[in-house]
Specification:
The structure holds two protein chains of two kinds. Chain A is α+β, with helices and mostly antiparallel strands. Chain A has nine helices and twelve strands. In chain A, the strands form two sheets. In chain A, strands 1, 5, 6, 7, 8, 9, 10, 11 and 12 form a nine-stranded mixed β-sheet that branches. The radius of gyration of chain A is 20 Å and the shape is globular. Chain B is mainly beta. Helices cover about 0% and strands about 55% of the residues of chain B. Chain B has one helix and 16 strands. In chain B, the strands form three sheets. Chain B has a six-stranded antiparallel β-sheet, with no helix packed on it. The chains are: A alpha+beta, B mainly beta. At the A-B interface, α6 of A face β3 and β5 of B.
């Protein structure tokens, strides 16, 4: 083992910046009357998302638990139990996600406010970005506007062929190989390679009103086109935060769980437990609310002018 | 011959695409928070040096390429064929003038080089970063002209020409950087 292997990949200056930003984040929420909460990392319940792979933990008594992919289940249980405005800064885990902007274990800041509209939630996110990064207020852009502008397609109406045509026009097709036919993958590829790099360049950008099939745990506003009341913050082409006007309908969540598990099975992923204490809480009654999750490591990355997470984490996954 | 799944993708992998070997020179994992994982790769063709940008979906795979690097010695040139010998087992390998390309300018009989084999056949040869070659022909420099930023052409023992400072004379040995083709210094002999 070489000497370098035990040392942090971030320098001390950045680790001090990280600590200062953690403090400023807590100050931001304290000033606005949010209660800091603290919920378990390990739970029987887990989010069922086609593209999120939770880490399973098997106990000696054979029970299977999951490390959280975000604290949203626990925090919504608190809201259903009467909390008004809560935040926490904790760890989340997502298997398979390793790279210059991903780390299997990462620091997540998440907050919820009961009674908040999506517009108010976007304003709070913009204020938070301004408070921590000092890059000004965020401009708001719908998902459709962003796609029209940077990929030349309507993301709600475009067919798979329309998306492939845009990919072809922008040189994203592979030579000597017919393009695949997965519409959702093309939409993600156009987002990642054409749209995202243009977002948050002059100042922060909040993208909102997502395609209905990307609702995850957000409410869907009937159209046409029907859109998911979801929003994301981008700075310098990097996705920093994801917010929802939260889904409150338990039967709708059951249905999404069922469909997601079918898709997971088709994709060769394990099927996850569909019953959860979140469903119990939603059946009891979740107040109308918005919630946002923010990747704290990426936020520090932007503030430090860094381009990789290694530069802002003491011990990233490969040397954890 | 194995395959690499997207989860194995990393810089430095040698893979096969359309029957040709490629080196993965860049690999970025990209994934919208709630979206599909994408693997953005830059791949350099190990035969032609061209670079390909490709994006793979999670679950796709690439075949590994049977690529091996060996230490060899340059033996001789016969018409358009350059002959090399592996240092350990004395196996001989041939490259065409087209494969050797501009690198012929740095070769001298007996010189150590590194070669790349693809499926057991040689595809490229890389000379050492610095080579020493003897000047056999060049114009005399003007007397007293010691400026080093002015150059003149000089022909070396293998027939190649390099730009050298005015003070270089036939019989001098010069050191050349093979990555740039630039003159570095005169070697005292």
């Amino acid at each position: 083992m070489s000497d370098a292997d035990f040392r942090p990949t971030a320098n001390w200056e950045t680790l001090k910046l990280r600590a200062a930003m953690l403090q400023r984040l807590r100050d931001f929420f304290a000033e606005r009357g949010f209660l800091e909460v603290d919920t378990p990392l390990l739970s029987r319940d887990t989010v069922i998302d086609v593209h999120l792979e939770p880490l399973a933990v098997d106990l000696c008594d054979r029970r299977r638990l999951y490390l959280q992919t975000s604290p949203e289940f626990a925090m919504k249980r608190l809201l259903a139990a009467g909390a008004a405005a809560i935040y926490q800064i904790t760890r989340a885990f997502r298997d398979e996600e390793v790279g210059d902007r991903h780390n299997i274990e990462f620091t997540i800041a998440e907050w919820y406010q009961a009674g908040q509209s999506m517009s108010e939630a976007m304003q709070l996110l913009s204020d938070l970005g301004e408070h921590l990064l000092g890059l000004g207020a965020a401009e708001r852009l719908t998902f459709a506007e962003a796609f029209q502008r940077h990929a030349g397609v309507d993301p709600h109406a475009a067919s798979c062929d329309d998306l492939i045509a845009s990919a072809r026009e922008h040189g994203l097709l592979h030579e000597n190989r017919p393009p695949h036919r997965q519409r959702d993958v093309w939409l993600d590829q156009l987002l990642t390679q054409l749209v995202e790099p243009q977002l948050g360049i002059a100042g922060p950008t909040i993208l909102y009103d997502y395609p209905a099939d990307q609702a995850a745990l957000a409410t869907v506003r009937p159209g046409p086109p029907a859109v998911a009341e979801r929003f994301e913050l981008y700075v310098r082409g990097i996705e920093l935060a994801n917010g929802y006007h939260e889904l409150r309908d338990a039967s709708e969540l059951r249905e999404r769980n069922r469909v997601n598990n079918l898709q997971r099975r088709d994709a060769g992923r394990r099927v996850l437990p569909e019953d959860s204490r979140l469903l119990d809480a939603m059946e009891h009654g979740l107040p109308q609310c918005c919630g946002v999750a923010l990747g704290f490591d990426r936020l520090v990355m932007i503030a430090a002018g860094a381009t990789t997470l290694d530069e802002v984490m003491a011990f990233p996954f490969p040397i954890a | 011959m194995g395959t690499y799944k997207t989860s194995d993708f990393r810089k430095g992998l040698k893979v096969q695409i359309d029957g040709e070997p490629y080196l993965m020179i860049e690999m970025n994992f990209r994934k919208p928070g709630k979206g599909n994982a994408l693997y953005e790769c830059k791949l350099r063709n190990l035969i032609r040096g061209t670079v390909l940008s490709r994006t793979y979906r999670g679950g796709e795979s690439l075949e590994s390429a049977d690529v091996e690097e060996i230490d060899a010695q340059y033996l001789y040139r016969q018409a358009d064929t350059f002959v090399f010998m592996e240092n350990t087992n004395y196996e001989q390998y041939e490259l065409s003038a087209e494969q050797v390309d501009e690198n012929w300018k740095y070769l001298k009989e007996g010189m150590g080089v590194s070669m790349m084999l693809y499926n057991g056949n040689p595809i490229t040869m890389t000379p050492p970063n610095h080579v020493e070659l003897e000047v056999i022909e060049c114009e005399p420099g003007a007397k007293g002209d010691t400026a080093t930023n002015v150059t003149k052409p000089a022909k070396v023992e293998n027939g190649a020409e390099f730009g050298v400072p005015i003070f270089i004379k036939p019989g001098n040995v010069i050191k050349i950087d093979t990555r740039t083709g630039a003159y570095i210094e005169r070697v005292n002999s």
